[in-house]
Amino acid sequence: MIKVDFNIDKVRKDFPILSREIYKRPLVYFDNAATNQKPVQVLNRMDLYYENQNSNIHRGVHFLSQEATSAYEEARETIKTFINAHSRSEVVFTKGTTDAINLVAHSLGRKLLKAGDEILITFMEHHSNIVPWQMVCETTGAYLKVCNITEKGEIDIEDFKTKLSRKTRIVALNHVSNTLGTINPVKEIIKITHDAGALVLIDGAQAVAHLQVDVQDLDCDFYCFSGHKIYAPMGTGVLYGKEDILDKMPPYQGGGEMIAMVSFEKTTYNELPFKFEAGTPNVGGALGLEAAIKYVNGFGLATLAGYEDDLLKYGTEKLLQIEGLRIYGESALKTGVISFNLNKVHSYDAGTLIDKFGIAVRTGHLCTQPLVGFFGVPGFIRASFAMYNTKQEIDKLVEAVIKTREMLL
Amino acid sequence: MIKVDFNIDKVRKDFPILSREIYKRPLVYFDNAATNQKPVQVLNRMDLYYENQNSNIHRGVHFLSQEATSAYEEARETIKTFINAHSRSEVVFTKGTTDAINLVAHSLGRKLLKAGDEILITFMEHHSNIVPWQMVCETTGAYLKVCNITEKGEIDIEDFKTKLSRKTRIVALNHVSNTLGTINPVKEIIKITHDAGALVLIDGAQAVAHLQVDVQDLDCDFYCFSGHKIYAPMGTGVLYGKEDILDKMPPYQGGGEMIAMVSFEKTTYNELPFKFEAGTPNVGGALGLEAAIKYVNGFGLATLAGYEDDLLKYGTEKLLQIEGLRIYGESALKTGVISFNLNKVHSYDAGTLIDKFGIAVRTGHLCTQPLVGFFGVPGFIRASFAMYNTKQEIDKLVEAVIKTREMLL
Amino acid sequence: MKTTIEEIEQQIAGEFENFEDWLEKYNYIIEMGKDLPLINEKFKTKQNLISGCQSSVWLHADYKDGLVFFSADSDAVITKGIVNMLIRVLSGQTPEDIISSQLTFIDEVGLKEHLSPTRSNGLVSMIKQMKFYALAFQTKYGA
Amino acid sequence: MKTTIEEIEQQIAGEFENFEDWLEKYNYIIEMGKDLPLINEKFKTKQNLISGCQSSVWLHADYKDGLVFFSADSDAVITKGIVNMLIRVLSGQTPEDIISSQLTFIDEVGLKEHLSPTRSNGLVSMIKQMKFYALAFQTKYGA
Ligand SMILES: Cc1ncc(COP(=O)(O)O)c(C=O)c1O
Ligand SMILES: Cc1ncc(COP(=O)(O)O)c(C=O)c1O
Fold it and tell me: What DSSP character marks residue B183?
């Protein structure tokens, strides 16, 4: 499954942080679902920008401004191609997934939603795909409905169909769960939802670094992701939206590039995608995101997914051999995310000790408190993989978990 | 006025972009009010972060996450000290000034404003301090009032007093005008406004790189600025707000770090400043901003202001010797911003030709369309100075303007 | 036979060939811009206005004997110079030719930057509008 | 005379002195955490709960003869170990001493990271709450 040209030693050399030591041990970084590390290619692109091209963009007549504008718009084009959007107007730069979801929730809240309408999400959403909808429910009088999940950590499709009603205006769910790793059947859900006449927003924060996303094939109305989870700098993100829908939506933030004409009597807004990009954009960040996408494309997402699948299988097998260890998220379709607990051990205790082995795992509710409640645990221990992780690192994790268990039981 | 230790040649070496050539001429960068250039110290700090410390922050138990969290919170502390905020809770990271103003407008719109209330701004505001208020007026039924300015480009204080009424809830104005360079008497205006019982938001985008700002001395309720206008990376910014006021305001965006507890029935919000920081923050950017502030502090803002004042005086004198040239913004209190026009010459034409001399000036409405209307011109030509500019560069500009004039008249 | 769009484009490219530097080139564009207004004052209406952020353009179109005739103006003289060239190229042509024109001369003579979609001088919108007129006439009067 | 806060802090620091590595240190903390619950079950009420994101703490306070007595518990054993130490140090002291305590031993024994305000294990809030109780008793019963 792994292409010959995927040379893990070479890949690891691209990520400077991997040579860091933590408590005198080589860093093992398994907190990739929180944020992943950046290759030199991305850092170099940003440096190049700031050392050669930095300028405020759009409407500037001078050379640097024109050059920065072109670079920024080419980055948009790269993203368009990466997710197969129909046009560049559909690609809005944001500061991240949370920003993108809030944009949609707020804008639709102003025009689409009224009291009694329903928004349908699932039990496995990240807080960033829960709270914005709760806030918009508060201002509009709409209701939040929540689709059940199964013990294996999959969406209960029958329950979804029951809860999808004629009152549903928006369905919002993640493509891949950050806690369970489950790859949700979003294409099917989008189809069902469209048949019921509602819009679908896909939270793709955990998907884009691991799956090839094709927004036209999925036919979703909105797709959101963060740069920092796909080897790109923090403070970058993307909202994809279908052009005709974005076109009808009111702007979110005001100021800067998003206007056509400002007067105190009447202000008119710019065309897409600029209508939704108020203020000076993060040009350096956008170019870093473009470089990250090019880096990923250099291997091909299928290659990376294959490699990470191997890690997932290996890690799952090895971890399950530890007595009393339970893995949450047992879907057959998963990305490289393993959330687990040791019987009777508190995740905070485990995380504190595993850290001492120089291994970065995340513990706690992982920004999915309802899921914590669903499984009746105080939190999870999560190891999540990226292209630069290895089986040897997994062995170290297994060893650390065993030691941790001994110390705590 | 210039301290002995301000060595311009040394300073220029800190900014790699200044050695770039444009059309085979050395770049003269006079578009600093749009965005200024970044010293290596800032770029190095970001690289160091991504090469050694990169991690998602807050609530992470592992070493890197703790380290990144500490670094991020220290950056907040540095900013707190820089603007002399009372506590770190009052320093909210945003993606820029526009983001910060929208946050305040939206949040106050939800709780404070009702139909018939008034928001008072001035004729010299940047679109980012006009449009968010127009949008909130639309949703709340409040009215936007606009204070006049004088021909010299100063706020008409008498008009301000007249327009400030018992219905005024918020006054929003810039500390320094991005088009005119005018340093507004904000302390006085804040005092008058508070006496009338309204809140004051100061748009400090153009101030922080040129004046020492003390939010406690000013006594403003909110102060906003962007990192990219103070030698820091794009995609960073700060909202300062008085703690007791921020405390009472509803959150703006939902998701990520801004919650205390999420359940589908009831979500509670985190304490300040986290309540207003939804989603993964731009940690790398915040550290870049901290590095920029330290860089500026290394000289002292008074030193920089003194140096830039010299440039302003020199540039004003030289440019005014050109026949038919008018400068907009003739206040005695100005930062290094010179907006001008050549009699009968369109700013776009001038900008196009000045660019060909390798000189970056901005032309057009400069995101202040109402000001363009006030002065009855199609746009301005703006040269704005930073610490790395020189009188020799101003000479080149003067020469280019003279040539441009000859070509166009 | 009338001169084709490509032929006029080549003509213009030829005129630019001898310029030594950008100074001469821009002097020429400015000269073209300073030529008498390219539009009848009565057509400088709000409806015919294409506002860019940096400069604005007025555009008027007529249809006669199967050909489209444009007249236009701009408030900025460099924009006007380019407008002048665009009119030389496209005015008096058939709707089909206008619609399918590539206008490569702009790139050839080194004025591409003026047609960046984000430069906001009105030119990109103007070309769009010219093609839109051509399409409208074509639809209305048949091909 | 009763042992002062500083003296107990020094005692604890002394206990940690001989540990060779973090393993031994954490084994000791865990042992302290595994000790019998430090709070009467009836005080593990919602009102006494201090929820951190990572772990939670229950805290109860009594006032007797001018001294404040604390009992507490946590759902995580490492947190509980630290809670145990904090109670050893602060319980049975006067309100004034509690309020002015610096708790430097935490830093000395290398547990500072557990008291980072953003670690969200409930400990920072717990210390705040302990001082708050002391202040409340002081105000109520005079200094
Ligand atoms: C006075 C003023 N206010 C607000 C802004 C908006 O800042 P930003 O685009 O960084 O959000 C700017 C800069 O463009 C400005 O000069
Ligand atoms: C599934 C999911 N949705 C949303 C988010 C929020 O992304 P960000 O914090 O980059 O805005 C995350 C990551 O934290 C996530 O994993």
Answer: B
